[in-house]
Design goal:
10 helices; globular; alpha/beta; about 260 residues; Spore Coat Polysaccharide Biosynthesis Protein SpsA, Chain A
Length: about 260
C-alpha cells in the first residue's frame, strides 16, 4: 500500500434505508485498499441507523443528526475527509467492482488531470439496468454551454482542488455538482474514460431525478449568470428546451420503472 493515495468517499443519506446497505457494500467491497469512508445521515427515522451500525467499525466517521440537506451533508463529510482523492456516492447509488482502483490508477498516471469520470448505468429500484447515462468528454467551455455529461456517481477529483474551490454552495439543492465542476474545470482538465462502467445511478419514484428535476436547470442558469454568462447562450436555449421536453423525459423513466 506504500505510495497509494487515500481516497475519501462521502455518502450523504436521509431515510434511504431500503437502498443504503447496497451503497455501503459497493464501497466497502472495492478492491482498492486505501478508502476512507464517511457517512453523513440527516437524522433518518427508518432502518438507516441499524444499517450504519452494522458497518460502523469499517467507517472512518459517521454521524446521524438533522442537517440542511444533501449539500450540507456533503460539506460536513468532506470537512472530515483527509484523503488525496475525493468522491461522493449518494445513498441510493452503487459503485461497480474495481471503480475506485481504476480511477486512482488513472489519476496517478496523469497528474495534470483534476477530475476523471467514466460510464454509468441507470438502474431501477430492484437494481436492474434500465439504461445508460449519456456521458461524454466535457470541459469548462462545454460545461458553460450546458453540456455537462458527467455522471456524478463516477467522478473522482483531487482533494487539493476541493480545498481551492470548495465547499459546495449550500444554496443549491440540485446543481451543486455542476457548480463544483465549473469551478474545478477552471483550474484543471477533466478526462472521460469511455467503455468503463464505474457506477449505477438508481432511478426511483422518490429520487430527486424524478421528483425535483425541474430545479436543476434553473440552478445551472444561476451559475451561468453568476459567472458573467449572456441570455443569448446555448445553456439558456437548452434550459427552455428542457422545460418543454421534461414531461416526456419523466414519463419515459416512469414507464421503465413500471409506474
Amino acid at each position: 500500500m506504500n505510495g497509494l493515495p487515500l481516497v475519501s468517499i462521502v455518502t450523504p443519506s436521509f431515510n434511504q434505508g431500503r437502498f443504503l446497505e447496497a451503497t455501503i457494500r459497493s464501497v466497502l467491497e472495492q478492491d482498492y485498499p486505501r478508502i476512507e469512508y464517511i457517512i453523513v445521515d440527516g437524522g433518518s427515522t427508518d432502518e438507516s441507523l441499524a444499517i450504519i451500525h452494522k458497518y460502523a467499525d469499517r467507517l472512518a466517521w459517521w454521524v446521524s443528526e438533522p442537517d440542511q440537506g444533501q449539500t450540507d451533508a456533503l460539506n460536513k463529510g468532506f470537512g472530515r475527509a483527509t484523503g488525496e482523492i475525493f468522491a461522493w456516492l449518494n445513498s441510493d447509488d452503487t459503485y461497480q467492482p474495481g471503480a475506485v482502483g481504476a480511477a486512482v490508477r488513472f489519476l496517478m498516471a496523469h497528474p495534470e488531470v483534476g477530475l476523471v469520470y467514466a460510464d454509468c448505468n441507470f438502474i431501477d429500484q430492484a437494481g436492474r439496468v434500465i439504461g445508460r447515462f449519456p456521458a461524454a468528454q466535457t470541459d469548462l467551455k462545454r460545461l458553460r454551454r450546458g453540456y455537462v455529461h458527467i455522471p456524478q456517481q463516477t467522478a473522482f477529483f483531487r482533494a487539493a482542488l476541493w480545498r481551492q474551490v470548495g465547499p459546495l454552495d449550500p444554496s443549491f439543492y440540485f446543481a451543486m455538482d455542476y457548480d463544483l465542476w465549473t469551478r474545478i474545470a477552471a483550474r484543471a482538465p477533466f478526462k472521460y474514460l469511455p467503455g468503463q462502467v464505474w457506477a449505477n445511478f438508481r432511478i426511483h419514484t422518490a429520487g430527486k431525478t424524478i421528483t425535483a428535476d425541474d430545479r436543476c436547470w434553473p440552478e445551472m442558469l444561476r451559475v451561468h449568470y453568476r459567472d458573467g454568462g449572456s441570455f443569448f447562450a446555448p445553456i439558456v436555449f437548452k434550459y427552455y428546451l428542457r422545460r418543454l421536453i421534461r414531461p416526456l423525459w419523466v414519463w419515459r423513466f416512469r414507464r421503465k420503472l413500471g409506474v
